[in-house]
Amino acid sequence: MILHKWLTVFGRYVILMGRTFSIPERMRMFWKQYVKEMAQLGVNSIGIVLLISFFIGAVICIQMKVNIESPWMPRWVAGYTTREIMLLEFSSSIMCLILAGKVGSNIASELGTMRVTQQIDALDIMGVNSACYLILPKILGLLTIMPFLVIFSSAMGIVGAYFTAYGMRIITPDDLTLGLQHTFIPWFMWMSIIKSLFFAFIISSVPAYCGYTVEGGSVEVGKASTDAVVTSSVLILFSDVFLTQLLS
Amino acid sequence: MIEVKHLHKSFADKEVLKDINTVFEDGKTNLIIGQSGSGKTVLMKNLVGLLEPTSGQVLYDGRDFVAMSKQEKVHMRREMGMIFQSAALFDSLSVLENVMFPLDMFSDMTLRDRQRRAMECLDRVNLNGAESKFPGEISGGMQKRVAIARAIVMNPKYLFCDEPNSGLDPKTSLVIDDLLHGITREYNTTTIINTHDMNSVMGIGENIIFIYEGCKEWQGVSADIMHSPNQRLTDFIFASNLQKKMRQAVIANGITI
Predict the structure, then answer these.
(1) How many separate domains does chain A show?
(2) Is A4 inside any structural domain?
(3) Are B107 and B155 in contact (CB under 8 A)?
(4) Which end of chain B, N or C, is more open, meaning fewer C-beta atoms within 10 Å of its C-beta?
(5) Coil, helix or strand at residue B169
(6) Percent of chain A with pLDDT over 70
């Protein structure tokens, strides 16, 4: 029974994505929406990404220095592990989990409200492909902006680590710099970006499905918003395991 | 002209519409009336294609809408305008942008021409000066008028209105009724209005269809309602004691409305 329900939901999701990925009726309107969504979903998230990345970068550096330091370990290990954690997991996976909460609930509640107030019906009656008009710009907008968010997050994490060096004297700047530069593999940066693109698709398409298919009123919109965040978070964690294995 | 033939609609085991046969005429204000839950909104949703009938035909000037391909339906829908119960204006767009939206999507007019056409429609619904406001900043009656302006901006052949007077005071309801009636005449549209409002029924109903428990119970013009022998219809229209007494007085004194 549960399997049947899951397959039904998955089938509906695939059908919705089929409707979403079609050629927009009017490119002028599509570009307008695309730029708007990039600003709303991506640019408006830069603040929270920078803030969290700064503090996580600082905290990782402190934890590594305090807990891993030993005479058998080189002094640069705190900087090295901070870089690896930020690059490999935090800036792609954890940051996307945070965005699933912010962006995912935003998308689900916006589309859900449009559904229950008949705005989506109004688009359908006009002959507009409402899925393409509303969802495609959100998916493409987030996919476009996500690599920048990953790069900003990694950079800000390193700034946070330097804050512990210069501001808190936890580690010397030279040791930190040495650790950050030690055996840097550029592929890790690409891996982080590739993973984040998959997650960006999940963060935008799953909440869009949850919101677009709402039936009922405000209670159902709230439930769809919660479902969107939970489902996309679980899917990010699952796919992170497979993607990490695949790309490493 | 819209013709409905043997229309049935069921949800699971529940049959909501039972063998509806009717004609909605051009250039007339066609009203669908009935109690809550009688199937009015389901009938309208079947007409505009938001729901698929279980069986039966919906013919737009002889073309069966149910049997049309997806692409044909999209083209057909560009000849329709719809006013929803909640107005269904786009929150993120201003009044002018809401009215311009169908033109932005489907016309090749220049920006200036689109703006001019949208302003004409806003002028038609007496909403000059509100173009830069957002839906959240205007009253319910104004929202309905914006919805009417948006529905007529593409010169539709068919105009659908789902309870356009719900939530409005009697005076504003009359304004909306007059607008819809005037637009029907002016644009020669086939206008179909779902309503509970008895003022609308008696005021602008040129072709009235009474739905009772999913069946078409009665069809006629407003002038016939007063003297109709159909008990279900008169019980529905003249529901309050005041209305019943008024009807008795009208019949007793031989007054024609």
Answers:
(1) 1
(2) no
(3) no
(4) C
(5) coil
(6) 100
Cα–Cα dist B161/B250, whole Å: 31
Helices B170-187, B140-152: inter-axial angle, 10-degree rounding? 10
All residues of chain A having their beta carbon less than 8 Å from the beta carbon of residue B75 are: 127
Residue A225 lies in a domain: yes
Selected for mutation to probe chain B from A22, A36, A118, A120 (highest B CB count within 10 Å) is: A118
Q: Is the pLDDT of residue B248 over 80?
A: no
Query: Is B77's CB within 8 Å of A119's CB?
Result: no
- Three-state DSSP at B11 gives strand
pLDDT attached to residue B226? 75
**Is A45 within 8 Å of A149 (Cβ atoms)?**
yes
Q: Please tell me whether residue B130 adopts helix, strand or coil conformation.
A: coil
Residue of B nearest to A33 (CA): B92
Nearest residue of chain A to residue B74 (CA atoms): A127
Q: Regarding the domain with residue range B2-221, which homologous superfamily does it belong to in the CATH classification? A: P-loop containing nucleotide triphosphate hydrolases (3.40.50.300)
B92 φ, ψ to 5°? -85, -5
| Cβ neighbour number for residue B227 with a 10 Å cutoff | 12
Instruction: Give the structural domain span for A56.
Output: 27-247
pLDDT, tens digit, 9 for 90 and up, residues B68-93: 988 888 888 888 999 998 889 999 99
Question: Please, which residues have CB within 8 angstroms of residue B85's CB and are 6 or more apart in sequence?
Answer: A118, B162, B163, B164, B166
pLDDT in tens, B34-66: 888 888 989 999 999 889 999 999 999 889 998
Please report whether residue A16 resides in a domain. Answer: no
What pLDDT shows up at residue B32? 92
pLDDT tens digits, one per residue of A122-181: 999 888 999 999 999 999 999 999 999 999 999 999 999 999 989 888 889 999 999 999
Q: Which amino acid is at B123?
A: D
Which residues in chain B are closer than 8 Å to A127, comparing Cβ atoms?
73-78, 106
Q: Report the DSSP pairing between strands B80-83 and B158-162.
A: parallel
pLDDT digits (tens, 9 = 90+) for B89-109: 999 999 999 999 999 998 889
Closest-approach residue (CA) in chain B for A24: B105
Q: What is the CA radius of gyration of chain A?
A: 21
Any domain includes A130: yes
Q: Do A125 and B82 touch (CB under 8 A)?
A: yes
**How confident is the model over B195-213, as a mean pLDDT?**
85
